[in-house]
Design goal:
By secondary structure, the chain is α/β, with parallel strands linked by helices. The protein folds into two domains: about 10-95, 2-Layer Sandwich (60s Ribosomal Protein L30, Chain: A), CATH 3.30.1330; about 100-255, 3-Layer(aba) Sandwich (Alpha/beta knot). Helices cover about 35% and strands about 20% of the residues. The strands form two sheets. It has a seven-stranded parallel sheet, sandwiched between helices. A four-stranded mixed sheet has the order 1-4-2-3. Helix 7 (about 150-155) links the parallel strand 6 and strand 7. Helix 6 packs parallel to helix 10. The longest helix is centred in the C-terminal third of the chain and has 15 residues, at about 240-255. It is elongated and about 60 Å long. The termini are far apart.
């Protein structure tokens, strides 16, 4: 069991709290037994398991006994440093960042996150996207880092179920949509077609912007339509993740799924 913070593997592990090092190492962390199990169930192969035996529950210890992956054993105090949560469950996994790009996305329904800076919203959108079976999720530059611990945790395993692309430039998204025949439709708080009356055709890319600034000008100008969720109660807007989830399920209803 490693007890020194100066151990080379511990140093590299602790760096993963920073985005630049996740990108450099090509890895991200999934904390807790549930997320690790979700990743394995979805077919992801961990680079390494990180465990702290004194912190393990009986169920976690039993699960680890069945897994034959490289592992790094840390003292509890080092595990606490590596975790983003206040209380560690004693198990997490290093997973490789997905090798996914715009050209690899296929299917009939895609989510585009344009400037969604809140990790909780980004993670929830991954979760909702996985629930409805989107073909992919595209995050433009300026959107919360999908590999961050908070996004991964908020996704509740969705991060392993949806192909995702980070840091796409708006002009790249517009070019991709035109080339591949995707219809860009933006979700707006007001002024759009009521979401329950829109005809959701095949190859739909639903664009969700930040609650503060909305969808950026470049992508918004390339959208062929906008949908809006009516709010007869008088509020100005819904939470972005909740609003997008409503529209995603309306797409399923429209398509008879």
């Amino acid at each position: 069991m490693i007890t020194s913070r100066q151990h080379p593997e511990v140093k590299e592990l602790l760096k993963l709290s920073q985005r630049k090092h996740r990108l450099r190492q090509g890895q991200f962390l999934a904390e807790g037994l549930r997320l690790v199990e979700d990743g394995l169930a979805a077919g992801w192969i961990p680079v390494k398991l990180v465990v702290s035996p004194p912190l393990l529950s009986k169920r976690a210890a039993a699960a680890l006994a069945q897994w034959d992956y490289p592992r790094l054993e840390l003292a509890p105090e080092l595990m606490a440093l590596a975790c983003d949560t206040e209380t560690s469950q004693g198990v997490m996994a290093l997973f490789p960042l997905p090798e996914c790009n715009l050209d690899s996305i296929r299917g009939e329904l895609v989510l585009v996150l344009d400037g969604i800076s809140d990790p909780g919203n980004a993670g929830t959108l991954l979760r909702s996207g996985a629930a409805v079976g989107v073909s992919g999720l595209i995050a433009t530059a300026g959107t919360a880092d999908l590999s961050s611990p908070k996004v991964v945790r908020a996704s509740m395993g969705g991060v392993f179920r949806v192909p995702w692309v980070m840091d796409a430039e708006p002009d790249q998204v517009v070019s991709w949509a035109k080339t591949e025949g995707w219809q860009l439709v933006t979700l707006e708080p007001r002024g759009g077609i009521p979401y329950h009356r829109f005809a959701y055709k095949d190859k739909l890319a639903l664009v969700v912007g930040s609650e503060a600034d909305g969808v950026g000008t470049e992508i918004a100008s390339a959208c062929s339509a906008a949908v809006t969720i009516p709010m007869p109660g008088g509020l100005e807007s819904l939470n972005a993740a909740i609003a997008a989830t409503l529209v995603l399920y309306q797409v399923l209803i429209y398509r008879g799924l």
